[in-house]
Otoraplin (Triplophysa tibetana), 134 residues
Amino acid sequence: MDISSGLFFFLICFVCLSQTANGVIMEKLAYKKICADKDCSYVMSLAKALDDYVASDCRYINLRRGHLIYVYSKLKPVEGAGVFWFGSVYGDRYVDQMGVIGYFPRNYVNETHIFQKKTVEIPTTVSAVSSFFA
């Protein structure tokens, strides 16, 4: 096989294997949230996981009993919906210290320390970066 046919074969394989990614439209979890500041960039509180929780989709994070979670926002529930908080989870092992962000159900954690008592209520938004988490 010469170089031109090898490049052609590579190109065909690349085109066949690469598919366009279509996003899945997910329903908003809430229309308003409570944060420590208008950008939701400050930690509101620290929570500890009471039980294990397995995330149902990419918006949520897995929790293991004993994990510490830094809470950045609290969704105001829509009628009939569960109450979810948004935060960053850290594990016990060094490899788990990277911090994974996402939503988790409020009833799986115990809020152990409040850093910001003063809060603001802001609408949730959808943007290119936050479409999974808004």
Remarks:
- Confidence is low (pLDDT under 50) at residues 127-134.
- The CA atoms of residues 36 and 42 lie 6 Å apart.
